[in-house]
Amino acid sequence: MPPFMKENEEPQLPREPGMPTPVAVPTPTVWGSARANSPVDGWIQKLEKDDPAFKSLYVMSFRTIESADFIRLCAAIGKSKFLEEFHTGRELVENDLDALSQCLSVNSSLKILSVGNKNFGADGMERIFPGLAKNTSLRILDLENKGLGDRGMEHLARLFESTADIQIESMKLGCNGFTDIGASALLKALSSNTSITSIDMHGNAFGSADTGAALGAWLAFKECALQSLNLSTTEGLSEDFVVKVAQEGLARNTSLTRLNLNECAVGDAGVTALAEALADNKSVSSLFLDGCSITAVGASQLQALLTANTQIKELIIRNNAIHEEGFNAICSALRTNTTLDVLECGGCGVSRVAQIGSETSITHLGLFNNGLGDAGIASILYAVEANNKTSLNSLVSLDVSGNEISDDGFRSFCERIGADLELLPALTTLEIGGNKADDKEAWVSVCEALEKTRPGIRVIWGDGHKY
């Protein structure tokens, strides 16, 4: 898959549900392992010695640690000058939470915190509230899948209302079961916040017009610093919500760069509002609208957006029924748009590519699972030739996987780009897996022949084959 689809890909280390994937750092990271002896004494020793190399501590839920040991560990973390990350997926009882709160109230080194499991809940949030309210070092608060609910979100809102000293920059609040009550409480508390740059609220159940207005008010705040907003897979998110956010917030916001509304009921009305709000926007560069119930009507609004906007670099609209009409409307905007870099229209019912602007500078075009067939993949090259072979000159990656392309269709496509180096001259990756490939040996021969004339192209097809 193209690079932008790997936004959540990190080094593959064991992790608990709701815990962040640890990012590889050049300093030692200590994990709670399955050794017979408790590692707590060793961790405390490192903390008490102020080992400057000891910056990250992960305590996994499968590690059996007595509450008394966890309380001792929290006391040591409270005094640490160098520990920057603390993650634990173990279930925390009241005494653990109180110790953690005390730890947070005095520690000045922690920057990243992820604690508890799905049973952490509103009670857990309430008990660590005093410590969080006094802490000024935390920058990332990961509370994903912690069972917060509306009451837990209200405690979090109270945190931001109670003090101006909070310096948290990123919050992960996905999959916490909160509704408009909790979402609205937090967003209203953040209405004049200047520190949050990233917030992830995916997989919850909110989306009323009133909550949209609360989010819009924060986005419209002239000192709003929010850069990344993830509302994907939000059950109940309505077109009215999107319209409010767009009209009351995005139209005036200058900080947001990434907006993810994947699998939300944005609809054509929501897309229309987004397109109008972002037409003159100078900050949003990535727009994710997978599975948003957009039709060719909404695609025409995206055409207008791309014609006017000079900032958007990624437009991801997979699994929307825009069909050939909508896709070609978007492509028509590429006659003048020179800033779009990635266009993903997989699963959109596109059967033929009719036109692609000669001025386009896109480097990735995704058309997987569209049922293109042999005629559809051939139409890509016909569209390029129709513009005197000046279209898609910057295209580096083309994904036509899962399109019912036959042996003959694949051979014809490869022979054409192999014989004419002016067709897709920058192409280095051709993803074509999941097609018919009845004769695998024939596909291998085609790849080998292409490699001789276009040695810079890597073909990726079924069974992970790469050439």
Automatic annotation (TrEMBL):
Residues 1-27 are annotated as: Disordered. Residues 1-13 have a biased composition (Basic and acidic residues). InterPro entries: Leu-rich_rpt, LRR_dom_sf, RanGap. It comes from the Eukaryota. SUPFAM superfamilies: RNI-like (SSF52047). GO terms for molecular function: GTPase activator activity; small GTPase binding. GO terms for biological process: nucleocytoplasmic transport. GO terms for cellular component: cytosol; nucleus; perinuclear region of cytoplasm. This is RNI-like protein. It comes from Sphaeroforma arctica JP610.
